[in-house]
């Protein structure tokens, strides 16, 4: 099936694969510099960060253990509530520098809750790495990402791990739905 037939009507590519690769190279260089020689727990937030985390991890030259977690604040609702764990990390965090790797930062509630959980596990430090930050003034959490790959417009974005109705995560580029505001 042709890609055009998979895309929702009115969607457009906003970030190319070349731009993603440049962001990955920049993020990997910063992480390799900042965490050289230190014990790292690379913690992927599923499902959205799967593709980004895999691409980033292959570029890292760190003393690194990998784990994943899945949490949701939405469930069947359209507005976030209390963080519900679907799968908790299994690797010990105590004494390790935890890198929370997520696909997109919007308002920050989920990543803030995950960061608090990691600190409670006595991590040496906790840093947030995201592929994209949504450009808008609605930020509600105190936690900001420490490492950001790209900035995307305040539109519904999908591809490169981010979903559209639980589909299209596999797209190698990032798309936006609808017209720019």
Account of the 3D structure:
The structure is a single chain. This protein has 181 residues and is α/β, with parallel strands linked by helices. It contains four helices and nine strands. It has helices at residues 3-6, 17-34, 50-57, 109-120; strands spanning 12-15, 39-45, 63-72, 84-87, 97-105, 125-134, 147-152, 157-158, 174-176. It has a six-stranded mixed beta sheet, with helices on both faces. Helix 2 packs across helix 3 (50-57).
List the helices and strands and how they pair.
Layout: H1 3-6, E1 12-15, H2 17-34, E2 39-45, H3 50-57, E3 63-72, E4 84-87, E5 97-105, H4 109-120, E6 125-134, E7 147-152, E8 157-158, E9 174-176
Parallel strand pairs: 2-3, 2-5, 5-6, 6-7
Antiparallel strand pairs: 1-9, 3-4, 8-9
Helix pairs in contact: 2-3
Strand/helix succession = HEHEHEEEHEEEE
Number of individual domains: 1
- CA-based gyration radius: 16 Å
Query: Terminal Cα separation, in Å?
Result: 31 Å
The CATH topology comes to: Rossmann fold
